[in-house]
Amino acid sequence: xxxxxxVVDEKISIGISGCCYGSKVRYNNKGWDFLEFLxxxxxxxxxxxxxxxxxxxxGVPRNSIRIAGGTGDTVWSGEGKVMQQGKGDVTEGLKxxxxxxxxxxxRGETEVFIYMDGSPSCGVYxxxxxxxxxxxxxxxxxxxxxxxxxxxxxxxxxxSPIKWWDWRRRMLAFVWLKKQEIETAEDIYAVWHVLxxxxxxxxxxxxxxxxxxxxxxxxxxxxxxxxSFRAEILEMLRKPSTVNKIxxxxxxxxxxxxxxxxxxxxxxxxxxxLRNMTTIASELVLMERKSxxxxxxxxxxxxxxxxxxRR
Length: 311
Known about the structure:
Mean pLDDT: 94
Distance between the termini: 24 Å
Number of domains: 3
Radius of gyration: 21 Å
Strand order of the largest sheet: 3-2-7-8
Low-confidence stretches: none
Shape: globular
Number of helices: 10
């Protein structure tokens, strides 16, 4: 089996809702700097902030907008509308603003987007910030992001060290997989060897099904099988894991590391040991670093970023 390089050494370009980047572009002239939660890590990426509502010409400050008669999907099909208080129908403007933002993201070669859920433009699973109301998801721009197959990260989860770590490792695997040439059965085996432990943690039942199919080696049309395989894994990588699963996976892969490398990492705690989310995230980052230094594949986080100057 050929060995694949699982180190990403080019900064990933990430699109982000402008209001989450710190730009005061919300309807009420406010914004949030979610990148502050990443600390020095924010320098590992190239950021592309966009705001569909500003690009629609709605200005700041502005009256809020809402989707009427459907969802962001039906706005694009012509069945829904976007209404602004005091101004009326702003559908065409928001569609043009959304397309302009997508063109910007494409020029920036982005495949990842950090969005503000609750927005009728950028929202994906909510278009309303009221606790008991989801609104009419997805938003108008959110609909485009889904259609284009972006890896979508909710901005609010950047505040949690463990949730961000989970999004980051899956994002790196997602971007890495999209760039892999998968043309032969050997390519499929090699990619699965890299990602199988992460996939098993996310969805064990689906992973076992994929594993059995690969083990059988019965590929009637290798090109079709390769693209189907890629699409299945990309979709799986979009799904968040849970803290319990992450702790179990960390311990399983650490014990494997200890057995095969003959090395111990005192900071790694057992799954049942009580500690806070920040401590767990620190253990995971430590294992990523230790594994990289020893040339060991850490299945919990199989693809990592290292600046090429530090490799």
